[in-house]
Amino acid sequence: MSKNKVVIVGSTNVDKFINVERFPKPGETLHIDQAQQEFGGGKGANQAIAAGRLEAETTFITKVGKEGNADFIIDDFKEASINTDYILTSENEETGQAFITVTDEGQNTILVYGGANMTLNAEDVNHGEQAIREADFVVAQLEIPIEAIEQAFKIAKAHGVTTILNPAPAIDLPDSLLSLTDIIIPNETEAERLSGISIKNEADMQQTGDYFFERGISTVLITLGEQGTYFATQHESHIVPAYQVKAIDTTAAGDTFIGAFVSRLERDLSNLEDAIRFANQASSLTVQRKGAQASIPTYKEVTAQYQ
Ligand code: ATP
Ligand code: RIB
């Protein structure tokens, strides 16, 4: 099978991690055993690293600050064989930052400062037009302006390239973006935020699928954490179960899922369930390691474990 050509349009963040026994209550002070650690992060960058490590031919369109905080992340992009021609630099804004707290139980909270990410505009995306036209799939998330995503998706749609939206973090979205989206991949919270349907069982998932079908989206995946992934097309729908592992930090589980899914998916979507299974496998390795990009596995690691 030839490698998928994937363009990711999205954010790059420096992730600042703190490990805590439990989340503090409002007003409470807690001691921690380890100083803050820094890792490469950002939903776009994580998905690009995942796609690259899982052997898709990956191009990443993003914007970082000129202060050089993202230099170590760009080195990792190169190590994952990602095309870095469209990593742009903001004159005025710093590289994005995320402040992440992880508990002993593996739960996290994340605060994101957008910085340079929020200056990525339609004109910037136009620089990557040729890469988008030649891609099999274009993927975006919501840590950059909607204007940039819509431009990438418009170019993609004009050239028959499949568009994939990961609506994370959860915000309200214009119908104009949903109507440019072929495949949507929210987690449960994000799905609920967009559809207004609270997900308690598979019937709720089906109703959520219908909500997105009515907005012109043809394929709906909802990631369900340790339960796995629900998918729905016009022809079939069910849950592909996750793998039972001990999760120590789920940061970037969703990003690994998307990078893995898009690296495996056939252009005609004929192997949808197989691609979801592979993505469940890859993200089950991510949740067993700490950090975002640091925890994303390579193709060899996934196949050594599961195939
Ligand atoms: P995050 O925001 O933590 O990166 P997310 O909320 O976007 O993640 P999830 O639905 O939590 O996404 O997880 C994505 C995929 O990762 C799941 O569909 C599943 O395959 C895998 N996964 C997540 N948590 C676990 C777990 N505890 N055990 C096994 N697999 C998991
Ligand atoms: O999805 C995980 C990512 O969300 C982290 O790497 C952090 O940067 C936030 O954007």
UniProtKB/TrEMBL annotation:
Catalytic activity: D-ribose + ATP = D-ribose 5-phosphate + ADP + H(+)
Domain Carbohydrate kinase PfkB: 4-298
Positions annotated to bind K(+): D249, T251, T286, R289, G291, S295
Assigned EC number: 2.7.1.15
Pathway the protein contributes to: Carbohydrate metabolism; D-ribose degradation; D-ribose 5-phosphate from beta-D-ribopyranose: step 2/2
The protein's required cofactors: Mg(2+)
Enzyme class: transferase
Pfam families named among the record's database cross-references: PfkB
UniProt subcellular location: Cytoplasm
Classification via Gene3D superfamilies: 3.40.1190.20
Keywords tagged on the record: ATP-binding, Carbohydrate metabolism, Cytoplasm, Kinase, Magnesium, Metal-binding, Nucleotide-binding, Potassium, Transferase
Coarse class of the protein's main subcellular location: cytoplasm
Catalytic site: D255
Binding site for substrate: N13, V14, D15, G42, K43, G44, A45, N46, E143, D255
Protein origin, superkingdom: Bacteria
Cited InterPro entries: Carboh/pur_kinase_PfkB_CS (IPR002173), PfkB_dom (IPR011611), Ribo/fructo_kinase (IPR002139), Ribokinase (IPR011877), Ribokinase-like (IPR029056)
Means of activity regulation: Activated by a monovalent cation that binds near, but not in, the active site. The most likely occupant of the site in vivo is potassium. Ion binding induces a conformational change that may alter substrate affinity.
Residues the record lists as binding ATP: N187, T223, L224, G225, E226, Q227, G228, G254, D255, N280
Family: Belongs to the carbohydrate kinase pfkB family.
Function: Catalyzes the phosphorylation of ribose at O-5 in a reaction requiring ATP and magnesium. The resulting D-ribose-5-phosphate can then be used either for sythesis of nucleotides, histidine, and tryptophan, or as a component of the pentose phosphate pathway.
The protein's name in its UniProt record: Ribokinase
Organism: Staphylococcus caprae
Gene name linked to the record: rbsK
